[in-house]
Design brief:
- The protein has 300 residues and is an alpha/beta fold.
- It has one domain (5-54, 72-192, 214-294): TIM Barrel, CATH 3.20.20.70.
- It has nine helices and 16 strands.
- It has helices spanning 77-89, 104-114, 136-139, 142-155, 171-180, 219-232, 246-255, 265-268, 272-287; strands spanning 5-7, 10-12, 16-18, 40-42, 59-62, 65-68, 94-99, 121-125, 160-163, 185-188, 192-195, 197-198, 203-204, 210-214, 237-239, 259-262.
- Strands 3-16-15-10-9-8-7-4 form an eight-stranded parallel beta sheet. It has a four-stranded antiparallel beta sheet with strand order 5-6-14-11, with no helix packed on it.
- The chain is globular.
- The two termini are 24 Å apart.
- It binds flavin mononucleotide.
- The site of flavin mononucleotide (FMN) has 24 residues, from loops.
Length: 300
């Protein structure tokens, strides 16, 4: 059976990746399973300089998911390049670095710095709902999506994945804007903006007031958006949002995703990503699917 998929010329041994921000750079999870089982590891967002993140509390549980407002805390690209890339290079998996920034120049500085590193692909996060500048400000206006994609493509040595926000009216328009700017791949969805109020403390459950909702509660929205995006563009789509197991992953693939990312479930079950890989193989065996490509976008 063939589980290999191709993203803009990069061949993944299987379509399973980790969702940015839910897997660190894989160190803790490498104690649970061999990261070489995964098609790719997607790192936490990296900026040009260190970001302290938002005040605490930053996470809260919700029905079927969680709210987070981490605010993209990260050590900055130098520490990342020296510490995390050599760690990931030890494993037989592809390395995808998630990039964040407050201005176009911030993003470009990281993209340029990473051009010298053994990184397979870049994922540009223009969809974080938890930072005041940058992030989602780029991701909600199709003209801005096209413009920043074009800029990033001028500097990037690796293929570029644009990560789209679900906090928009028409995801097809945003997908087309990224494609028009030259994106090689798009990924979606990032978190949906939400709010929780602690009625005993009579205040917001996360200090940022709003947070990004993730986990199984958002999955039907994510599947719908992946379907719409995949049908709007010709470039490959990476699907995510509430994947808990292999069945969920297959749903995204049938909706049109070439690859999938496993996110929030990692916090509950650190073996989840490896289990998704094995579960996809079991599904293919059960239904006599010889090549995973037969499943991509099979439901129309
Ligand atoms: C705690 C946390 C941190 C996250 N950090 C990032 C990030 O740094 N960059 C990014 O593009 N997405 C980030 N995300 C969004 C996830 O990568 C993913 O798009 C989203 O959570 C939906 O998938 P899930 O429901 O499987 O978690 C984060 C999500 C969570 C829960």
């Amino acid at each position: 059976m063939n589980t290999k998929v191709n993203l803009a010329g990069i061949e993944l041994k299987n379509p399973v990746m980790t969702a940015s921000g839910t897997f660190g750079s894989g160190e803790e999870y490498s104690e649970m399973f061999d990261l070489g089982y995964l098609g790719a590891v997607v790192t936490k967002g990296v900026a040009n300089v260190a970001w302290p993140g938002n005040p605490t509390p930053r996470i809260a549980e919700t029905y079927g998911g969680m709210l987070n407002a981490i605010g993209l805390q990260n050590p900055g690209m130098e520490v990342f390049a020296q510490r995390d890339i050599p760690f990931l290079k030890k494993y037989d998996t592809k390395i995808i670095v998630n990039v964040c920034g407050k201005t176009t120049e911030d993003y470009l500085a990281v993209v340029e710095r990473l051009s010298e590193e053994p990184v397979d692909m870049l994922e540009i996060n223009i969809s974080c709902p938890n930072v005041k500048e940058g992030g989602i400000a780029f991701g909600q206006d199709p003209k801005a999506v096209e413009a920043i994609t074009r800029e990033v493509k001028k500097y990037a040595k690796q293929p570029v994945i644009m990560k789209l926000s679900p906090n928009v009216t028409d995801i097809g328009v945003m997908a087309k804007a990224a494609e028009a700017g030259g994106a090689d791949v798009i990924s979606l969805i990032n978190t949906l903006t939400g709010m929780k109020i602690d009625i005993n403390r009579r205040t917001f459950a996360v200090a940022n007031k709003t947070g990004g909702l993730s986990g199984p509660a958002i999955k039907p929205i994510a599947v719908r958006m992946v379907y719409q995006a995949a049908n709007a563009v010709k470039i490959p789509v990476i699907g995510m949002g509430g994947i808990m197991d292999a069945d969920d992953a297959i749903e995204f693939i049938l909706a049109g995703a070439t690859a999938v990312s496993v996110g929030t479930v990692n916090f509950r079950n650190p073996y989840a990503a490896e289990e998704v890989v094995k579960g996809i193989e079991a599904y293919m065996e059960r239904y006599g699917v010889k090549d995973i490509k037969e499943l991509i976008g099979a439901v129309r």
